[in-house]
Amino acid sequence: MFVLFFVALVLLAHWYLWFRLVRRTTVPGRLRKTLTWGLVALFAVLVATFVGSRMGLESWVAWPGFIWLAVMFYLVVILVVLEVPRAVVAALVRRAGRRREPQSVAAPPVAVPAGAGAGAGAGAGVGVPADVAVDVPVASSMSRRLFLDRATAAVSGVGALGTVGYGMVSALGDPVIEPVKVTLPKLDSRLAGLRFAVVSDIHLGPLTGIGHTERIVRMINGLEADVVAIVGDLVDGSVAQLGALARPLKSLESRYGAYFVTGNHEYFTAEGPGEWVEELAELGVRSLRNERVEIRHQGAVLDLAGVNDIGGAAAGESPDFAKALGGREPGRSTVLLAHQPIQVKEAARHGVDLQLSGHTHGGQIAPFDLVVGLQQPVVSGLATVDGVQVYVTRGAGFWGPPVRVGAPPEITILELRG
């Protein structure tokens, strides 16, 4: 059902773009046919990209498809926003045209030279009234409409390309380091100052390359954190496809280790997350699959727990909060790693002090942040939900288009305070 809905939505978007950018800006002829087939080709590229993404497509296939997806999205958004002002301007222009111009202009009588027509007298001129009216207002109206439609198309094109270009620079550049301090009322004073490097949604895939991983590892190591927390959606493919891209994770540095919990994308491959759990273990990253560990710091202990993503339910790997959080020592502070912010509602029932999450990308492409906010209790940043503090990182990578608008990539250095 999702695939059918997506295809229908994309078809509708392409029809709308054809209507606004091709049919309304051209006259019948070669140019209109060329632009029409161009849109058909772009639709085919987009479909091939999404089909290929399930089959380990190569980057040269993915780049044009995902970039067109972003351009298409912003073209539609800008054109829809311009519909109202365009309609108002068009109505005002039509009204002004009706006031200024008559309905038609008849040609004056024409003197026909002698012999120019059958039955004409020699040397005589006959005044013949024109029987064809020149429709000046209609032609003028058509010209104004065409100008307005072309101006609208130009504005939307420049706006979409400029926005996507800016978004690509943001997505492919260095993540922002976000310093965050969180006060936990029950925290043992000896744990004050404990620092977490939080990263999520790295999305290793055909567009990222090994340089993406190396940069993230280098930036995390520069933070000199006590704990590294990778909060899901590390990969978009199997170990066979992407194992080489993950190898730089072996160089992660922290005092008490690096920990990982699954995101929904870890369950998209046929192999499931099991092979990645094993691969990460070889790279020195421990996966917390409905379990917890003790972080001992300056003679005090913090419980660090992790639960599977909600997407694991279909694979028989549902998040199990009771297993991960049950039987804890009373009074001990607990930090939970859970990919989706919405999981905080269950965490609250188990007395968690702080939840670290990702998943949302901060919306990734504005105004998607408004849509994400309908599904998740927090889109990005620190908030309190049902009495539990939850920090949602925007993620260090991207999914789909290599574009981020209004939500730059992020690595968080989070410090606990008592």
From TrEMBL:
Domain of life of the organism encoding this protein: Bacteria
Domain Calcineurin-like phosphoesterase: 194-362
InterPro entries: Calcineurin-like_PHP, Metallo-depent_PP-like, Metallophosphoesterase_sf
SUPFAM superfamilies: Metallo-dependent phosphatases
Official protein name in the record: Metallophosphoesterase
Natural source organism: Nonomuraea maheshkhaliensis
Pfam annotation, one family: Metallophos
The entry's keywords: Hydrolase, Membrane, Metal-binding, Transmembrane, Transmembrane helix
Segments traversing the membrane: 6-22, 34-53, 65-93
